[in-house]
Write a structure and sequence with these properties.
By secondary structure, the protein is mainly α. It is 83% helix and 0% strand.
Length: 71
């Protein structure tokens, strides 16, 4: 599993706190290693979806905006 996939698995299991931590870690690593990239954008979109599920609307919107700027 990649961290992204693990974050998605935790999300599906409704373990939202851990999923958020894993996505944040995945994003931090991808930013350091690859900078702005397609894989980072995909992870940001998945993370924003998680934030939406948690009703963190402002944070989700900000993350979506970051992902869109990379495309």
């Amino acid at each position: 599993f990649t961290l992204h996939e693990f974050g998605e698995l935790l999300r599906m299991m409704t373990n939202y706190d851990e999923s958020e931590k894993i996505f944040s870690r995945s994003i931090a690593i991808k930013e350091k290693v690859k900078g702005k990239s397609e894989t980072l954008s995909v992870t940001l979109i998945a993370f924003a979806g998680l934030l939406e599920e948690r009703k963190k609307w402002k944070e989700a919107n900000d993350v979506y905006e970051r992902a869109i700027q990379m495309m």
